[in-house]
Design a protein that fits this description.
- The protein is an all-alpha fold and 82 residues long.
- α1 crosses α2.
- The chain is elongated, with a radius of gyration of 24 Å.
Length: 82
């Protein structure tokens, strides 16, 4: 029976510590990537909200107010869904 092994595996067939470390590391990287994507998406939506306020004739203070309102709604929305 031929056993396929990665080149770095020396003569070991399976190393549990390396396997667990690899899975844990990949999971951490995926979670961090998802968190960064969500943070970026929130910033884009916030900027879009401010630009809509300015497009309808509001100035910088209106853009700030609308952005603050959107952040507040996003923060407290789960409380009202219960």
């Amino acid at each position: 029976m031929k056993v396929l092994k990665p080149e770095w595996a020396d003569n070991r067939l399976f190393d549990l510590d390396e396997c667990v470390a690899f899975i844990t590391n990949k999971t951490a990287v995926n979670i961090a990537s998802l968190a960064m994507f969500i943070k970026h998406l929130k910033q884009v939506l916030l900027a879009e909200t401010a630009m809509v306020a300015v497009a309808f004739g509001g100035g910088p203070s209106m853009a700030y107010s609308v952005s603050l309102l959107k952040v507040s709604i996003d923060e407290f929305e789960p409380d009202f869904k219960k």
